[in-house]
Structures are given as structure tokens and as C-alpha cells.
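Supplementary Methods. Inverse-folding protocol.

Structures were first reduced to a C-alpha cell string of length 146. This string, shown here, constituted the complete conditioning input.
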């Protein structure tokens, strides 16, 4: 009887091991399928849109201000010229604080008449980047923007 019980227990243990192996194989297969589905979902999910690029970056604004101050120090710009250009920069900064995300894009400045100060400053930044000579830049800044 004990021998029969031992054989029966051995069979049950073998069946349990076989069932456990099957369950582990099913679990592994399901995990593989889950990962494949996650990959497919990630491929089909559109990437979030990139944040809009500002028309004038902080670095460009800082470079322009430094150049304007340098032109004033070298007497290529008068006090009045300096103040007017500083006002233009300050008006732009004020404008950026009035928009929801603090970013004014190129599309905004050239399509909305309410942000004319931004388009004026954008053009001044471009002129500063394009003109290497300080005297020429100072003359053009006075001629075009003051």
C-alpha cells in the first residue's frame, strides 16, 4: 500500500511539475506578447509636439543688449539712442510675460499687429547678427529702429 501511495505521490508530483512548467511557459509567452503590444502601442502613439521655438532666444537678447551697451560706451550711440533701444527690449520682455507660455514665435510676431514691438526687435536682432561692424550697425539701428 505504501508503495502504491509512493507511486501515486510520485505521479502527482510529476504532474504538478509538468503543470507548473506549462504555466511558466504560458506566463513567459504572455509576458512576451505584452511587451510586443507595448512596443506596437508606442510605435502607433504620436510623439508629443515639440514646444514652439521662441522668435528671439534669451541668448540673442543678451547678446543684443551687450552689443548696444558696448556701442554706447564707445559713443556710437547717444544716451537717447541707448534708452530707446533698451525700451524696445523691455517692451518685448513685457510682451513675453503677457502670453500664456511666455513664448512669442516667429509666426506670432509677423501675423499679429498687436505684437509689432516683437517684429521690430526680431529685425534688430537679425541686423545685429548680420552686421559685424559696430559703426555700421549703430547707424543702421538709428536709421531703422529709432
Amino acid at each position: 500500500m505504501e508503495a502504491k501511495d509512493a507511486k501515486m505521490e510520485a505521479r502527482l508530483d510529476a504532474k504538478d511539475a509538468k503543470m507548473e512548467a506549462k504555466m511558466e511557459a504560458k506566463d513567459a509567452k504572455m509576458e512576451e506578447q505584452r511587451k510586443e503590444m507595448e512596443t506596437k502601442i508606442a510605435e502607433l502613439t504620436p510623439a508629443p509636439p515639440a514646444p514652439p521655438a521662441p522668435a528671439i532666444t534669451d541668448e540673442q537678447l543678451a547678446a543684443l543688449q551687450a552689443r548696444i551697451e558696448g556701442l554706447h560706451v564707445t559713443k556710437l550711440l547717444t544716451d537717447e539712442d541707448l534708452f530707446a533701444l533698451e525700451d524696445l527690449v523691455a517692451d518685448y520682455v513685457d510682451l513675453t510675460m503677457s502670453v500664456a507660455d511666455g513664448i512669442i514665435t516667429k509666426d506670432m510676431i509677423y501675423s499679429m499687429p498687436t505684437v509689432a514691438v516683437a517684429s521690430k526687435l526680431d529685425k534688430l536682432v537679425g541686423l545685429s547678427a548680420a552686421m559685424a561692424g559696430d559703426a555700421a550697425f549703430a547707424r543702421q539701428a538709428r536709421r531703422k529702429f529709432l
